[in-house]
């Protein structure tokens, strides 16, 4: 029996007295075909892989077959005996929280990719940290299907979609039905892969982009002129919008990452 059999997973949980914790998003993948597709899309072949939340190791096993190295970060220490049984010793286990783990402590690598089947409640914060770290050339995540759609959306954007477009090229790959997980979650999931662009080496201009993006999304119903004036003052806002050729009456959620980048560059010059 393999790790992709629900019966094996149930047996494993029973043997180790492991109970699935909903608040940690513990729905484990039991679909070999989905694992293979994620492994392929993730760019793990010959790369240094950082996986967040290995669970019982379903995805990790697939990754470890093709990667140069695999390091996993798991919050739930109760999974230690399970992972020691399911994973090869070459996989490095790290215990911690993706919301606080120092990503810059990962060893230097010319090809590091991040892979995760992220728990819903930490998705946005975890993704933002992964983007801002500048440590990864590709990030591939399995998230709730609605969230995946939101991440790649090009109109009525959310702040995370704007950030994804700024840092990467997000692509919606495929849907994974709820029945491919154990225990079965309430909704379907989907896989999104993001090839990262190199980070702007100028930390100040990167910080200005973040500040501008947050200002634009602080009040979604207001015009960009109003949200930017509240943060930077009316004359700086007007000058930046003019130089960036952005309509002052637009809403923040209508602006592309390129437009926000132009506004923040203009604000830098003030
Ligand atoms: N990758 C496995 C799979 O696909 O079968 C498990 C995915 S499960 C949806 C999410 C995993 O993330 C669980 O193992 C959970 O304990 C872990 N996790 C939850 N919150 C976390 C956090 N803040 N930091 C690191 N891991 C976390």
Characteristic key phrases:
270 residues, alpha/beta, Rossmann fold, Helicase, Ruva Protein, domain 3, 7-stranded mixed β-sheet, two-stranded antiparallel ribbon, 9 strands, 41% helix, binds S-adenosylmethionine
* CA-atom Rg in angstroms: 20 Å
Reported for the largest beta sheet, the result is: 7 strands, mixed
The CATH superfamily of the largest domain is identified as Vaccinia Virus protein VP39
The termini sit apart by 65 Å
Order of helices and strands: HEHEHEHEEHEHHEEEHHHH
Separate helix tally: 11
**CATH architecture designation of the largest domain:** 3-Layer(aba) Sandwich
Helix-strand category: alpha/beta
Strand content: 15-25%
Q: Estimate the mean pLDDT confidence.
A: 95
Explain this structure to me?
This protein is an alpha/beta fold. The chain folds into 2 domains: 6-196, Rossmann fold; 203-268, Helicase, Ruva Protein, domain 3 (Orthogonal Bundle). Helix content is 41%, strand content 18%. It contains 11 helices and 9 strands. The strands form 2 sheets. Strands 4-3-2-5-6-9-7 form a 7-stranded mixed β-sheet, with helices on both faces. A two-stranded antiparallel sheet has the order 1-8. β2 (48-52), α3 (58-66) and β3 (69-74) form a beta-alpha-beta unit. α2 (32-41) packs across α3, α8 crosses α9 (224-232) and α10 crosses α11 (257-268). It is elongated and about 65 Å long. The model has no long low-confidence stretch (mean pLDDT 95). S-adenosylmethionine is lined by residues 24-29, 52-55, 58-59, 73-76, 97-99, 117, 119, 122.
